[in-house]
Design brief:
By secondary structure, the protein is an alpha/beta fold. The chain has a single domain, classed as Nucleotidyltransferase, domain 5 (2-Layer Sandwich). The protein is built from 8 helices and 5 strands. Strands 3-2-1-4-5 form a 5-stranded mixed β-sheet. Helix 2 packs across helix 5. 42% of the residues are buried.
Amino acid sequence: MPDLSYELLSLKAGHTHIIGIDEAGRGPLAGPVSAAAVILPRGYTHDLLDDSKKLSEKKRELIYEDIMADDRILWGHSYAEAPEIDEVNILRATHAAMARSTQDLLDKYSIARETKIYCLIDGLPLKNFPFSSEGIVKGDGISLSIAAASIIAKVKRDRKMLEYAEKYPQYGFERHKGYGTKVHLAALKDHGATSIHRQSFAPVAQLTLPLD
C-alpha cells in the first residue's frame, strides 16, 4: 500500500508544499486525458486508498467522495481534450494537463508559485515541467499523494465519459470509457469518428482495423 514516505523526505529537504500528480486516459481512442494534483495533510491515512487501477469502480467512487468531503485535502484538476492531443501529441498533452492541474490547485487555494513547492509525479521524470519535481515509477502504488491524484483523475474522467455516452449513445462509452475494445471499434466503423475521438490515433485515422 502507498504511504507518505516520499512526502516526508521532501518535507525534510525543505519543501513546504508536496503535490502528488497523476493522470488517467492516455490510451483511449476517445475522450480526454484527465490529470489531478493533490496535497494531503501531514499524517493522512486512508484504509482503501491505493493505485486507482487496482481498485474496483465502487471503491474508487467511495474514496473519491471521501477525498472531496475532506477539507484538509487540497486538489486541482485539468483535462486535455482530443483536439489538444491531436495538435501536440498525447505525451505533451498529458504533461500540459498535469501542469495545469498543479496551477489549478495553487490558484484555488491561493498558494504562491514562489512557495517551496515540490511535485511527486507518477512515471519518469519530466523535462521542462514548470515546477520542481521528481518522477516516481509506479508512484500511484507508492505515494499516497499520487494515489489520491490517480483516484481524482480516474473518477473525473469516467464521469466525463458517461456524459459523452449520453451525447453519443451509439458508441458505448459508458462501457469502455473510450478504450479500443471490439465494441468501440465496431461502432467507429459503423458511425465514424466524433469530435471527442483522437484523430491522430491510428484506429480512428484508419477506420479499417480488423475486429478479430
